[in-house]
């Protein structure tokens, strides 16, 4: 799947991931109203609103982008119906040719880690039949438990030709409480980056590893260091737009070939119609606003890379 991600980025010229992280507050009233008329103000109604919201955004942006990243918590909060909407979203995006990064941030050990990996990236055996339960292409993984938590994912990834993005330096303000702490004179995030590079050495695509890293756009200088630590790892960069990251902050995340990183924007795209810049497009045409936001983001990143 890393080869497909790179191919999609080359084809679109836009190293962008749209974060499909819908809150009900992001969903225009007319979408919610229609869903509630059919299913009532229930968990099923909320899930239907989410699904219809996602579908319209994907329809308006899939030709511009290489990948999407649904954050599973936004679906889990609506229980089983929410998870059904997550699965419908994953399947629909794959039908459109998009790479799907399941933002699940799982981290455990042994059979539990293996079960997470099977459920999201692999297959499960039920009697004489085999199923791919959620079937994302990549998953985000928390490395806090060490190799015991990562190896079960790598085993499934090798079998299924899929990949993971390991949390290395996250975009949130308090990430430094642990990630910046020094050991042996070096910050923890550098040591995690070295492990990501090591895990990936034995699992390579054509040019990049199936083992990538999550490094926030809000820490560009740290990104510069980590790019050197992990030269063959694709970096998933959250924090663009709503969290403050801009194209000029991202140049160090990319290699000289213009590849090596893919940048996520969630509410900056899916709730673009709420921004003053796109307000004239209107809530009825919210997906058109999302398309405009993707085009502007792509232009911002392209300009930054050309002028670095």
Question: What's the helix and strand layout?
Answer:
Layout (H helix, E strand, L loop, with lengths): L1 H11 L3 E3 L10 H11 L3 H19 L5 E2 L4 H4 L2 H17 L3 E8 L3 H11 L3 E3 L2 E3 L6 E4 L5 H14 L2 E7 L6 H4 L2 E2 L2 E2 H14 L9 E5 L4 H10 L5 E3 L23 E5 L1 H4 L15 H21 L2
Parallel strand pairs: 1-2, 1-12, 2-3, 3-6, 6-7, 7-10, 10-11, 11-12
Antiparallel strand pairs: 4-5, 8-9
Helix pairs in contact: 2-3, 3-5, 3-12, 6-7
Q: Would you summarize the structure shown here?
A:
The chain has 308 residues and is α/β, with parallel strands linked by helices. The protein is built from twelve helices and twelve strands.
Could you explain the architecture of this structure?
The chain has helices at 2-12, 29-39, 43-61, 73-76, 79-95, 110-120, 147-160, 176-179, 188-201, 220-229, 267-270, 286-306; strands at 16-18, 67-68, 99-106, 124-126, 129-131, 138-141, 163-169, 182-183, 186-187, 211-215, 235-237, 261-265. The protein is an alpha/beta fold and 308 residues long. The protein has one domain (2-306): Aldolase class I (TIM Barrel). The strands form three sheets. An eight-stranded parallel β-barrel has the order 1-2-3-6-7-10-11-12, surrounded by seven helices. Strands 4-5 form a two-stranded antiparallel ribbon. It has a two-stranded antiparallel ribbon with strand order 8-9. β8 (182-183) and β9 form a beta hairpin. The model has no long low-confidence stretch (mean pLDDT 94).
